[in-house]
Design goal:
The chain is an alpha/beta fold. 45% of the residues lie in helices and 11% in strands. It contains 13 helices and 8 strands.
Amino acid sequence: MEGGDAKGSVCVTGGTGYVASWLIMKLLEHGYRVRTTVRSHNPDSKKDLSYLTDLPGASEKLQIFNADLAQPDSFDEAIQGCIGVFHVAHPLDFEDKEPEEVKTQRAINATLGILKACLKSKTIKRVIYTSSASTIMFNEKGLDVLDESHWSDVDFIRSLNPYGASYMISKTLTEKAALEFAEKHGLDLITVIPSLINGPFICPRVPSSVDTAMVMMHVDLTIDKLFEFLSAKYPECPIPTPDSFKEIECTSRSNLSSKKLLDTGFKYKYGLEEMYNGAIQCCKEKGFL
């Protein structure tokens, strides 16, 4: 997928999200034709997607398709004929409106359905799956440094029951299923394991990861004060108790290694100051601060 001058088509799932919208913009800048999937998009929909359709080059090179994770086959059309797929979409339900098993199975079925569509296309050269640092952080090994060779223990996550536990479990089990499928079928699959993502954003809403990162700028981050802040800011959400925050704090002291990424030649372009400045400026421009 190197060299945008090839002008191939690339599919980005979950195009309305934080990471996906940035991917769409960058892919367009590099000369790719982009197909992205969103839920329930049609000409009569009231959903405003102008932040995508107004991107430079979008009028000529961006196509938007309807697709739903609950219907894996709905991604087939967007993937057909593409040279690569960025699978970013994932079910989000931090309020646990559905059982953990239901959300996990939906995520696994959708991801495997997308990978099957990639095989059927005969044109896909590589799939990039966006995972999460939560897939490696939660275990009882007590290691100083964790990397992509480690896995979170889903039973351990269940025993802690932190806020967002079902998301952490579904991401862990979905990534495992994706890697097993790719190895079995000879599909070139790369998983990316980001930690908390912060910085400016293209989408019209403040991304949850930016909102979480900005908490540190509003409160003196003791566990008790963080609990009070979150309870006031999100009264409709089931915020965990201060004790469960302390449990997470005690189990999340390991550093996350970027050695494998850096060994490929990757170089970090921005530091914390630039990321926070970018997020703050973007929030101001969009009227959130």
